[in-house]
Amino acid sequence: MKIAIIGGGAAGFFSALSIKQHFPNHEVIILEKTTKVLAKVKISGGGRCNVTNEKRNSILLSKLYPRGENYLKKAFDIFGVDETFQWFSERGVALKVYPDGCVFPVANDSQVIIDCFMREASRLKIKIEYQAAVQAIRLEQDKFILETREKSYQFDKVIITSGGQPKKSGMDWLEKLGHGIVDPVPSLFTFNMPGNPITALMGNVVEKAVVKVEGTKLIGKGPLLITHWGMSGPAILLLSAWGARVLQEKEYQFAVLVNWLNDQKEMELQEVISNIIATQGGKMMGNLNPFPISNRLWHFLLQKCALSLELRWQDLGSKSINKIINVLINDRYEVSGKTTFKEEFVTAGGVALKDVDIRTMESKIVPGLHFAGEVLDIDGITGGYNFQAAWTTGFIAGKGVGE
């Protein structure tokens, strides 16, 4: 058979390699609309490529996908994290698990992943055509006709791995074929806080913070980074992933409540402060920072409470103690807008999963048409989960396309 892969990204390459693994005699062509392939792989993880995550249990792994959990649970049983480790190991790419569970190549360079894919594609005689944007797709006598600006192609099967689209209009061609499209909205973005004094602390990191969106049940936990435009870091990115649709409905105008001390509660904090007053009460507040936050942030929060850095702990009144407790575990900030990383953008939305057979990634609407990667209504939190979904769906699509 002659099979087309539309899109030369992570899912596209994995689909192509899976086809050749299972059906060596099939002819495979990757049609890439730009002048380069694997662009997201190249820049992901700061150029290191966060290949996957250490979570090897399919059920626990699937719970880290705001969209697609139930669907992926079955998919990970076919090709999960264990299989990803094995796949790369067999091809000479060693992977390393970091303390936060993220998995990177030992080489700490995304180029080793790209080189691996390109080497395998060359060995398996997979053809890559650049600047081949598919403008139309239609069926004629059980054959797929794909039109690009330059020429027309005929294929027996097609796998669509064109990635997430910022607007629904980018998926009109799939909707015209009869597929349901879930409106795409941004996921994994940072929060803008224009004009807020906290932006002067850019570069400060709090390793364990809890951030909630006021008036919702949305919550994000983990490291929080203060930036020159607002807040970022895993805690914020988690919040944006789980709250992608809610925050879009709010037009990215909302308030967050920050607990700078992780899960510490009011009563526990009362005890800490009482102990400091009893044992080190003569020290100035600006000189004694008993919390796991930087001195710069500590001073900022004291000033936010209108407390002098020279004030001694023993001179704190009950109202001031309440102010400090509140600003440490319930600090409020207005958010106005978001910042997405254009090259690494992730979208919630895409081809509706009800229209795709999980066992083969084949369309239930158009037989012979398969999907893999972010074009589907699947997205994970930050930490290698989106690449794992690409490997998983790509592997299944490649295997399923030849059956």
What descriptive keywords fit this protein?
403 residues, alpha+beta, FAD/NAD(P)-binding domain, seven-stranded antiparallel β-sheet, elongated
Question: At CATH's second level, what is the architecture of the largest domain?
Answer: 3-Layer(bba) Sandwich
CATH superfamily of the largest domain: FAD/NAD(P)-binding domain
| Strand order, largest beta sheet | 17-16-13-14-15-12-18
| Spatial shape | elongated
Give the helix tally: 13
Report the major sheet.
7 strands, antiparallel
Low-confidence parts = none
Helix content bin: 25-40%
Q: How many individual β-strands?
A: 22
Distance between the termini: 11 Å
Topology, please?
Layout: E1 2-6, H1 10-22, E2 27-31, H2 39-47, E3 52-53, H3 58-62, H4 69-78, H5 81-90, E4 95-97, E5 102-105, H6 111-123, E6 127-129, E7 136-140, E8 143-147, E9 152-155, E10 157-160, H7 172-176, E11 181-187, E12 190-192, E13 205-213, E14 219-226, E15 230-232, H8 234-242, H9 244-249, E16 253-259, H10 266-280, H11 295-304, H12 318-329, E17 331-336, E18 338-339, E19 346-351, E20 356-357, E21 362-363, E22 369-371, H13 385-401
Parallel strand pairs: 1-2, 1-10, 2-6, 10-22
Antiparallel strand pairs: 3-5, 4-5, 7-8, 8-9, 11-19, 12-15, 12-18, 13-14, 13-16, 14-15, 16-17, 20-21
Helix pairs in contact: 1-13, 4-13, 10-12
Descriptive overview:
The protein has 403 residues and is of the alpha+beta class. It folds into 2 domains: 243 residues, FAD/NAD(P)-binding domain; 151 residues, no CATH class. Helices cover 33% and strands 24% of the residues. It has 13 helices and 22 strands. It has a 7-stranded antiparallel sheet with strand order 17-16-13-14-15-12-18. It has a 5-stranded parallel sheet with strand order 6-2-1-10-22, covered by helices on one side. A hairpin with a 4-residue loop joins strand 20 and strand 21. The longest helix is centred in the last third of the chain and has 17 residues. The mean pLDDT is 96.
